[in-house]
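User: Modeling request: complex.
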Amino acid sequence: MGEFDLIAKYFDRPVRRSPLGIGDDCALLQPAPGMQLAVTSDMLVEGRHFLSTVDPRWLGHKSLAVNLSDPGAAGARPLAFTLSLALPSADAAWLAGFSEGLLALADAHGCELVGGDTTRGPLCINITAFGEVPAGRALLRSGARAGDDLWVSGTLGDARLALEAFRGRISLPQAIFDAARVRMEQPQPRVALGQALVGVATSAIDISDGLLGDLAHILQRSGVGASVNAACAPQLLAATAAGLQLDEAVVRELVLAGGDDYELAFTAPASQRAAVEAAGAQAGTRVTRIGAIDAGPGLRVLDAGGRALAQDFAGFDHFR
Amino acid sequence: MGEFDLIAKYFDRPVRRSPLGIGDDCALLQPAPGMQLAVTSDMLVEGRHFLSTVDPRWLGHKSLAVNLSDPGAAGARPLAFTLSLALPSADAAWLAGFSEGLLALADAHGCELVGGDTTRGPLCINITAFGEVPAGRALLRSGARAGDDLWVSGTLGDARLALEAFRGRISLPQAIFDAARVRMEQPQPRVALGQALVGVATSAIDISDGLLGDLAHILQRSGVGASVNAACAPQLLAATAAGLQLDEAVVRELVLAGGDDYELAFTAPASQRAAVEAAGAQAGTRVTRIGAIDAGPGLRVLDAGGRALAQDFAGFDHFR
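Assistant: Request completed. Predicted assembly structure:
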């Protein structure tokens, strides 16, 4: 199958939100008056971001999900995306599954595929996603203030738990493995929550590299510190709620530094607690208060008694 | 070197055109009132789009050049781009060269790096570029009309000539090889010409896969045919002007189907010939009239006597 046939068969669909979709030199995008475009780009490489055994449907889903997670963290409404795909071969079954998973998530968010590139090469997927946000209202990493509450959405650590099970480092009951695997393979980008938090939260980031590592970006950009209550960890790991018994330190490692969660970490003034809860309810996403922003620099992880934990957490860093 | 250090050291610079640059979940873009964003994405894979021996500086240059070529063909002014980079290792010398070549071309076009992604993996580069064009004025593939002239910019076929020399299929005098190699490794995107052609040309495309193959996209989208005068071929190959003697059929193959040229093919009414020449002069780019758009479908390559040539030309197709 040729490159252009491949695009036509699996990826070319009518577009509504872009004045011009797939098939010209460029797609054309026009944010509504007073809106800014929030742009993000994420690349997925086999063996690093997904296992070679993954169902292509879930790979398609996840490729877009990890990208929509960023406009979500900015409080932007997804609008469109481009897809660049390097493939070892034009495998029809793979392409059918990949495009099905990709476009199902795109449809769920009203986000249109407007362009991209396909080529032969080692399997590599790059998506650039575009969201729309009222000018000056995007949730940034730089807005956290001393005294703000620190919150996270959803549950954390289950994706990493599934990865450790795939790696054979941990053995899980089937039901817990299945649920964790869904978290690893089918993350749900928190775009509804992000939009609901515009005007409520002071800063936000999506948790892709582990909570503590990503939180550090907020602290650096905002010029503040934070205290995280590690006693929250068990209630944030879905596997624990499902009855899995794990060492406390392992639970903390998974929740605080596991990565691949695609939940939001965000800050909001204490006066906005009810508004944060309402935003979570509106988005159908659980929100949990896990700490506070401090005026002094540094990131402290505290036990239930408020004492600093000595445990070392190192977030993923793709070049470490 | 960690991912974030790598970005900070080689790629993070102050941005002026974007309300928010590198370092948040999303970059923010805001086209001026009445403007549309022209968006394009191209992926480059080692062995397919560049040789492993290429100077990283020229790889950086070319990675952006092939992307800016698309806003050029749309008549858009480059504004910003995102860069996704999968690298086998964080090699300082490679990164210094790559970022130098990339950012030098970006600066030459006033186009800012606003975001992206870095990860470890087989060398793969994806850029998404953003240009600005007055709403409704972009040069599309669909605007060619029967009776229009068919034009190309610059010279064609020299990049492919260099590739064939690298492959050992042809032997070239050093000076001609050096010049052809510059065409292969350092293409100059025709963005000034594209902008000058807005309101003059009826359709345009950038020639990346070979003139005939790319022209076919204009014909398909516009519902027309075309006749190309193959007698133009020798004057379009810079190596011929420099004295290289080649078989006529080879020259035609290089010029009409060589690929990797990043010149523009475009159409304009015969009444606009002076305006096309003026646009070329304004942009400092040669323009050559090489044929005409026909009402009937099909793409005919004619010899100097107006007879159809039997020679078979097959443009690149990355999955053929």
